[in-house]
Amino acid sequence: MKKILLIEDVASRQDDFMSEMDFSLHAYDDILENAIGDKYIDIEASLKNDDIDFSEYWMIMVHESAFGADVKSSLGKLKEYCEETETPLVLFSGGASNYYNNSKNEYMELNTKDFYSPNLKVFFDVYREGSHNILMLPYGEKWILNTLLNVLERTNNFLDKNSEDDIVYSEYENFTKIDMLNSLDHSFYDLSIEDDWVYRKDLIVLKDSILEYIQEVSDV
User: Between 163 and 21, whose confidence is greater?
Assistant: First the structure.
């Protein structure tokens, strides 16, 4: 099994968050490469020197500002590598809002307090068993139900604020984080989108299909 690479430039930040929880990252040495200290320095140098090969890792997790003054260049190289190799990438930072996209590779942004949380333990435990999903990081063990509820709530809020018959789909997409549903093994109502426009009545049908699946998952 390939390991997960966690790149953290400030060990004290990691220590502060981890001290609040009842598990240690060392307990996952068999599946986790915790790149702090000398290991972090080696990775930082490899990115600067374009000596990039992370093929031994299944997923990369990195603090968004880990590479200091060279963050745009090094982080850009890392993103490009992950897209080209379809390696899941998780960025975490204090100013991030939770975001997910899987158009090229699985890509997620998380607030640091949401990343260093009990959900991280859930994710590592399940990855070790081979039945993981990246949405466990923000949503925990009940990630399917919590993902559905989150998207449904955002969809209801969006429809409450937008009463026009025609709606700009990209605005709906950005507001509701509907892309998170792509990670679920389920066929929802298929929207008809033309030049980034969608009918409000179709969004209502999609909302109803989400609600139906919530009821199905809740009954399990």
Answer: 163
